[in-house]
Amino acid sequence: MKLLEKIIYADVLMMVMVIWVVPMCYGHGDQTGSDWNDARATFYGDINGGETQQGACGYGDLNKQGYGLETAALSTALFNNGSTCGACYEIKCVNSPQWCLPGIIRITATNFCPPNYDKTTDVWCNPPQKHFDLSQPMFLKIAKYKSGVVPVKYRRVPCVKTGGVKFETKGNPHFLMVLPYNVGGAGDVRAVQVKGTKTAWIPMKKNWGQNWNTGVVLTGQCLSFRLTLSDGITKDFINVTTPSWSCGQTFDGRINF
Length: 257
Known about the structure:
It is built from 3 helices and 15 strands. By secondary structure, it is an alpha+beta fold. The radius of gyration is 23 Å and the shape is elongated.
């Protein structure tokens, strides 16, 4: 009888541990799919997305690179010195019935909304404010044009991209700089390593935005890249380039996160 009681007690204890531990495991560590947070939103550029191309993240023609008009410039509090470039968000207009439109938009962070310390009012991108400066077409999906600025709710979500991660080579043979873009999953790259056919993995340094560089000469070798995203997930992109690669080319990594 005592043995049976011990077995029952152990089973009950195990059930209690599962009930207690599982919520803890699912409640932390994942930046995507998080709770809604408060911010504001405005827009910049024209209805065709003019003035929203390129920018502080280092991306170029956003249409050719697959981002289109579904983009935003982030305030200082969200930009994180460029580390958040490539992250994806869902945004909805709230608490302003006169100006809000129903629906949720999904955008990728591709630029920086700089602070202006000369003004004291209506400076939405000054720290510590959380603010999204949307492309005009995206803003008009959630708010009326005349509103100018609206309160919003936002949350991080996984990036869903078509095709493989792309790698654009820049710099020169003695100073290789690489821009990874069209990155799925968490979207924001936090570490890059490069490997030549004749080398081990070499850590690259962040230059600016999402441009990463190394001074190691790797000409004449196929290049592989190892990316680590903000959620800690790492993937290797093997033999992405040809041995005759040169700066100014873009290569398809073939796989994505």
